[in-house]
Every structure is written in structure tokens, then in C-alpha cells.
Amino acid sequence: MDHEADAYRTDLMTITRFVLNEQSKYPESRGDFTILLSNIVLGCKFVCSAVNKAGLAKLIGLAGETNIQGEEQKKLDVLSNDVFVKALVSSGRTSVLVSEEDEEATFVESSKRGKYCVVFDPLDGSSNIDCGVSIGTIFGIYTMKHSDEPTTEDVLKPGNEMVAAGYCMYGSSCMLVLSTGTGVHGFTLDPSLGEFILTHPDIKIPNKGNIYSVNEGNAQNWDGPTTKYVERCKYPKDGSPAKSLRYVGSMVADVHRTLLYGGIFLYPADKKSPNGKLRVLYEVFPMAFLMEQAGGQAFTGKKRALDLVPEKIHERSPIFLGSYDDVEEIKSLYAADEEN
Description:
Oligomer: single chain
Distance between the termini: 70 Å
Helix content: 25-40%
Largest sheet: 8 strands, mixed
């Protein structure tokens, strides 16, 4: 019997154990972050379960109808939002919540307040639910710098002030990718245990990749540097092989693949969306944070993505993120364009 292999299989690094280990490195820590994160993890498990049942629920006539208790069945994105808002408020560790689903920020009542602000997209790519394509939850965490009444100013801060960010992808497996500012780690949900297990420790993005990911349907509306860059991907002038195009249309799935395999993900500004389409606080910042922690870059077409200072909670921005060298190339094209 291979006792060594057996020991390896039973010594499971769960996400809770991982975060507690991280917490022990800071003697002054009171465990607030660990409690907050365990509530985010609970929300991810709930949404994962709901996503897996979505097709069946529709099949047996639940979605959009009233159930036997007279409760209306909620759309999955609305349900996901409710789950995360309730989980975050009940943690007792948050003061301000910003969700893609809610027009205004949520301010937690004073008796349940804590020192963290959480920005999140409860179900990114929800238009892909009906065709079974990977979708996900994206989140970023800030700390409150004062004990006054919370305001939206507490989240309108540059991404470089985030203390943690991550996403949970609901696909062929459920995977949570997290960074607390000391590298990026991936955890896969073991359905038999109901636990996220560390399966991808210390993820590093390759310096250069052979995949580019963009919605080419918008090509006629792109600016010069983006057009030039995509042209180079398809028809390299230096004799290197052309890059492959991979585009799911679900940011979590596209960024996840980019993080693991390398390459670049682009959602540029264009004539139809001069400010880009992706939201700064809960899409651009968390993904840019993860990319930089994994050794990549994130650029808006003008500056480093994490240096942006948002003025509105649902502000949008163009984004180019991925392997260091690939993003460096598009940065040089924008720099050359500015000089002309």
C-alpha cells in the first residue's frame, strides 16, 4: 500500500485552512477577514448549486413561476445577488456593498457593520446560463480607513488599494481563484465534501501566450492601436506563429483561461462604447488585481488599470489584461499612437 500517496490525498488544504494559515502570519489579526471570506465562499457554493439546477428548474416549470408556497421563483442573477448581499451583511464585517445588480450602494446598518467594503458582480455572463457556458462571480474587497458613517467614497478608490480580489467560476468544475495580495491561488469545489480544496497553488501567468480573446464583431468600431494589435495577432510580421482566437463572452471564463494558459484578453473602447463596456469596480479592478499578482499586466489604453480612480460606482473602462509581454506590446502601440 502506498502510504505516502494516501497521506497526500488525506492532507487536504481547504480554503478555510489556507486563509487561517495566512491569518496566523499577522499576530494582530482578529479573524475578521477570515469570517468575511467564509461568507463569500458560502455564497459561491449556493450559487454553484443553483446554477447546476437551472436547466432542470426550467424543465420542471419552476423558473419565472410561483411555487407551492406562493413565492415567485427568481431569475438566477437576482437570486445570486440576494444570496451574496445577505451573506455579506450577516457576516457582520462589512459596511458598504456595491453590486452590479443594484443601482445604489448598500450601506449596512450600524449594528452589523465591520471594516470591509465589498464590490461584486454576483453572476457575470448570466446571458450564457441557458446554453450551459461557464459563468461566474467576481469580487473585490477594500478596507474602511475610518470609523465614520460609510459613504460611496469608501469604495471610489483606485484598485491598487484593494486588499483582496477573486472570482468563482461555475463550469465543468466550480473553481474559486483568490488573491489576498501575496500571489494567486485556485481552489476547486469537491462536491462530495462541500469544500473548496487548493488545487492550483501560486498561479503564475506565462510571460507570453499564443491566445488572444476579443469580440471581433466590434472590429469596425475599434481605434487604431487595437486594430493594429489584432492584425499582428493574426498576421505576425516577425515570422512567429499566429495567435489563436478564443472568446467565450463570459469574462470569468475568458480571464480564467488567460490566467492559466497565457495570452491577452481585450475589451477595448470603440465608437459604440467610447468608455468601454466592463465596469471598473467589480470587473476591471478584481481581474487586474489577480493578473498583476500572477505576474501579468492590466492596461486601460491610457494607464495601469489599478491606478484608475472611479468617480461613479458603475463606471466603465476599456481593459487589456494578460501576459506581461503581450500587454507590453499593446502599450507600445498606444504610446506610438499618442506620439503621432
